[in-house]
Amino acid sequence: MPRSRFLSGAITVAATSLLASACTTGPTGGPSSSGDKGRATVKVGFTSDVTSFDPAKGAGSTDYALTSLLYQPLIGQDDGGTFVAGLADTWTSTPTKTSLTLKKGLTCSDGSALTPSQVVASLKRYRAHSAGALLTFGAANTGEKTTITGDEAAGTVTITTATPWGEVLAGLSGTAAGIVCKAGLEAGAAALAQGAVEGAATGPYEMVTARRGASYELRLRKGFKAYPRFASMPAGEPADRLRVQISKNESTLANQLQTGALDLAPLTGTDATRFTGNDTFTVESAPFIRNYIAFNQRPGRPGADPKVRKAIAQAVSVKAFNNVFGGTGQPLTSYVDEKAACVSTDGSLLTRTDTAAAKQVLKGVSIKLEGSNAVAGGAGNSYVAEALRAAGAEVKLTNADNAAWATDVTANQGDWDATVFPLISGTLARGGTYFLGPEPAKGGLNYGAVKNAAYAENYAAATSTTDRNAKCAAWQKAQEALLKANDVIPLATVDVHYVARRGVAFAMPGGSLSVSTLRVTG
Amino acid sequence: MAAAPAVGTAAGTGRSARLGPWGAFLVRRLVGLTAVAVTLVAGTFLMVQLIPGDPARVVAGAEATPADVELVRHDLGLDQPLLVRFGTYTSGLLRGDMGTSFQTQEPVAEIIGGRLPFTAEIALLAVLVVLGLAVPIGLAAAARGSRRTDASFTFVTGTVGATPEYIIGTLLVLGFAVELGWFPAAGAETLVSMVLPVAALVLPATCVMARIVRSEATHVLAQDYMRTARGRRLPPLRLYARHALPNLLTATLTLGGLILAGLLGGTVVVESVFAWPGIGQRVVEALLVRDYPVIQGCVLILGLLAALLNLLVDLVLALLDPRTLAGKGGR
Amino acid sequence: MRRIRWNAPLVVSLAGLGLIVVLGIVAPFLLEEEATALSGAARAHVSAGHWLGTDVLGRDVLARTLVATRLTLEMTLAATAIAAVAGILLGTGVWVSGRRVRELGLRLIDVMISYPALILALVIATVLGTGPVASVLAIGLGGAPAFARLTANMAASVAQRDFVTQARLMGVPPYRVLVRHLLPNISGPLLVLLSVAFANVLVALSGLSFLGVGVQAPDYDWGALLNSGLQSLYTNPAEAIGPAVAITVTGVLAGFVGDGLAAALDPRGGRAKAAAVRPTAVATPSHRAPADALVTVDGLAVVLPDGTRLVDDVSFHVMPGEVVGLVGESGSGKSLTAMSVARLLPEGLSAHAAELTLDDLDLAGPEADPKRLATEIGIVFQDPSSSFNPALRMSGQLTETLRVHQGVRGADADRRAVEALEQVRITEPARVMKQYPHELSGGMRQRAMIAAALLPGPRLIVADEPTTALDVTVQAEVLDVLKDINHRRGTSVLLISHDIGVVGTVCHRAVVMYAGRVVEELSAADLRAGRARHPYTRALLAASPRLRDSGSGERAPLATIPGRPPAPAGRPRGCGFTDRCPVAIDVVCATERPRLIDDVACHAVRQEVQAG
């Protein structure tokens, strides 16, 4: 029978091709060589898809990773807050004037030269479109009060602010301030957000293929030399190709690492422990989320009473909180972690755990605790709720999803008394904007209606100077004021553990992964 | 369980006389489809508006000032009254424009176009495998129902059928990907990537389906026409394949269509386990960030697909069993 | 609702579920403290203190799993109830409302059911905000369409029955039709559906939790526990085991309750009881039949697996070219006897005989040549509307035996089928060949059935009540066709009928059966002339209008036979007809079995003969 022969033939072909592909996708280790000598593809996994490819609009770790590869900032920020060269080689900065000299021979990914005027255009767009720009140029320097100019001949870009402001360099080193070439600026915001605009890249990589929600493939730009010069830059060559893969589930990422489908992935949960003590992998940890308790201090709320805030601080144990996330996080001594510049590490400023004392105040106090379930399903919130309950408070815990939590708490549209705030930003200036200024209803960020004059005064002092010592002295006073008043109760970080296959190395300047430092060493 | 089409009665014999049975059938179904589409458009739009949580705030980001949020709200058109937005939405739909994602700025049609094939791929494959396995298994169980095979059939199908897909999926990953390394643990890179997700969908569904087929087959095998066929002393294969199967298919396909439709959305759990970039995962993402256009678009398309599949199944049934066309019902 | 037949799976699974319910009630009282106490040892592995380890907050997983039973069961029950109430109202509602509403409602259910329930549930859960109430509503409403569809299907079968139609015509309001007529009649299957739905809801609820939109802390159900456990599956698998097992076991038990209920309510439930078949004593051959008989039945017994004899010691024969009628009330065993001859007994029944042959073909042996069976015996079944396969065209069904067993090729077979259809006086046979059974009238179908039986050229036609399901006018035509075939082809016919009149007109000879035994054998001429001897045969004749009318011309009132025949298991030791017999002799008839002597089995007749 010819028909059945054909069928069986087709089945055999299908079966063998399946088997063949099964064999090729076996757990082979290491960055895979593809033909040419030394050309390697490194496969990096992330748990969330890119939400925007526009550096000014990036909102998640995958956004930051990809945009930092495509759009290089002028400078980088290394450990301890020192700045290192990026697209700019040298710079000078005073509270009113910052001037940067670009490296020679910079190009865009379409081959055209990257000129100072293009950098100016890109920075102006950043100022207009990025939410973070407010902190870069200062709230008092909006609009025309900041001028950005370029000098083609000298190859410099100069930023002047009307009011003294000391955070310009820090702001320019952020991923959001990555420089976009002319092609990108002309393509418009929608195109920039949706995908990599061809010819717009200033960073080390350009996009080859993008499959939304699944994977992105990037190619190293030939002749790119403007890598930020971090102190801990690993040896080796940048990978010729980077493949970014999305797997929503951390266990899946871990499985893919284990089976050789990935070379590098960030893990925040317990799956990271599968790779400790394993010769094939290296694990580097960095703070991912800084957790602290904050209060709704409006009149009538329990948090308005300093005694209650203190008692709540006494009721919780940082160590126990940390254990919820596997004990791998770092206890916080402020609202940011110890890697941040000018952070207070003075443990004596913190309220000590004292359950007995807490019970005397909290007994019968009704507290509505609302937290986001985005991190470990809200396990940290559960701990705080249980600890307060153990101290006699009547706790109503709401574990909302991130969107509902943000609306309820940070926009203050919900009924809440206290929250476990998951701070992503690692700098004092950015994280500290939540404790001063007007309330959300009046156009500010002060969601808890914190009134701490000493803090606000020192915040202003710290952010308007460029002198390191003066800055840190002011920051110390600001943090002291906040901690003494128990406006913030630092808990612990949830760390991200970057698990890398041997042969792949990277730097974590300032405590966070910089994908552009990824090097193939083996 | 009676086959579904038996319930559709011929609406207006006069009309069917003019159009012929197929014409009347199609007219009836197209009118129904339009009504369903209109309901879905309005329903999804309204339902999405009910979701608590402010999309503008999510899009603007946690560190945005209220002014930024208002700016975003304006950009997204969320400051318009509900009716105006509904008007914009429907007029866009008529032009084939489903809007753009709040979150990623992609056109929703593109998102669906990129995601749906992945889901359809494994859902379709799963349904084919389910039907291919469940029908023979169920038929065999009904035909040779000795007490012992009956008990083990019931036990195995009952147990596997009641196990959630994500547990089965997780176990499959543990065994075949992590321990044995036979298949990729996740992703949609190669053909073999499909094996485990499809297996996770197929195992419980096959068990459920096999039970349905068995009970249907028991019913069919007890029919008089099966005794007539046995009276012709046919070889077993011919007896079951030619005489029992077509009658079994009516019920089986009805349910198979339902399973396929269910899988289109039901793969969401399996997609999550295997990092499969399907539409189910995208809906969950969109729900979490209140990405109205994406939720609306996906829910609408899935609904329309369901309605279309329904029609398709009925068309196939009408071809298979001419009694269903007239809607008179054979029973 | 039908009476429930308890079976082992049902009892065991109900007991298991009961245990879980008790656990759900008791556990929160006993273990609440342990389940919420923070031990300080987060994600501890299995130990003597924590049999399933601890969770992220160091709480005992076993205690939490047990305590979560209550919330899980409550949520599952509530969601099942929502799905059931909404679904049943919708599904039965369409059947008690007007036609247009019904059309629309059924269409709507069709579309709703094919909508991905989990996606719908996800949206609903997000709209309502995560938590137990939202989950319950989401899954309940998401499951309602499926419930509605299945209920609608069940209701359909009931709603089209006469009593419901009648109630509606009499203007009984819809809700009363629903409550009084529809619901009680589908309560059995509904119960099965409910237990299956319970299992599905359980899995669906845990699925919501798996996706992170289910129950949120501080509440916890099995799904939430499992979700948290799965996050550490690769580092501390014990945490996931408790809730995973709980969900699966409860789901399986609920499913088995469904199975058990289905079996318990199944009218055909006896099937599974395949107890050891008791050896049946085979009668010694009597060799009464002539040697040249075509069909010889000698000492035939048709036996249930438990040994009950439905047909007991039946003997008769059919000569070549002879039409023999098997007559008796329903339950007399005549059809089983005929099916034994056709070797088509239903599953579970077995035929034993000293001799059961068609010429040299042994019909009682363990193996019989299928080709000879198919071609030498033609069978005409009782109900032509159900005996043709509705999914196949007539041509295929008519020619199947020819093609399968006689190797006749397509066109040739079709030609012969058309000839056969002409022979049974079907007009436009070529068109009929292309039609489906439902497109033919009842009389046409039965004639086509006879044609199909004729086609392979059988030596015997077994016709099992061939006219019972037909109109009176059509009955005569069909019988004529049978007679005609017998005349022209000389094919023997074994005609089974409860109508002694039919047997009298069509057959050469009649065999009268009562309660599984032959009571009398007589020629058709004797039958027509009323020369029956057995009191049962006489009673049958008295109850048959046609023969008496044609016989004497005067219209006597129809006699009925009082009482009912005995059940096969309760057949008396003596004559089965004793209780209803007008001439029963006290001692003998009830205790001593009359033997068939001189073609009649009756003590009274024997006494008369001996006396006379």
Write a structural description.
- The complex is a heterotrimer of chains A (522), B (331) and C (612).
- Chain A is an alpha+beta fold.
- Chain A has helices at residues 2-24, 61-70, 116-129, 133-137, 168-172, 182-187, 189-194, 250-258, 306-315, 318-324, 355-362, 379-390, 402-410, 428-431, 453-463, 468-484; strands at residues 32-33, 40-46, 75-77, 83-85, 88-93, 97-102, 146-151, 156-161, 205-211, 215-220, 241-246, 264-267, 281-295, 366-372, 394-400, 418-423, 488-501, 504-507, 514-520.
- Chain A has 16 helices and 19 strands.
- A 6-stranded mixed beta sheet of chain A has the order 12-17-13-16-14-15, with helices on both faces. A 5-stranded mixed beta sheet of chain A has the order 1-2-11-10-9, covered by helices on one side.
- In chain A, helix 9 (306-315) crosses helix 11, helix 10 packs antiparallel against helix 12 (379-390) and helix 15 (453-463) runs antiparallel to helix 16 (468-484).
- The longest helix of chain A is centred in the first third of the chain and has 23 residues, at 2-24.
- The radius of gyration of chain A is 25 Å and the shape is globular.
- Chain B has 2 domains: 21-99 and 322-331, no CATH class; 117-288, MetI-like fold (Orthogonal Bundle), CATH 1.10.3720.
- Chain B is built from 13 helices and no strands.
- Chain B is an all-alpha fold.
- In chain C, helix 16 runs parallel beside helix 17.
- Chain C is 54% helix and 10% strand.
- Chain C starts with 7 loop residues before the first helix and ends with a helix.
- Chain C is α/β, with parallel strands linked by helices.
- Chains in contact: A-B, A-C, B-C.
- The A-C interface holds A 250-251, 254-255, 269-271, 273-274, 320, 323-327, 373, 376-379, 381-383, 385-387, 390, 397-401, 404 and C 36, 38, 40, 42-43, 56-58, 126, 129-130, 212-213, 216-218, 227-228, 230-236.
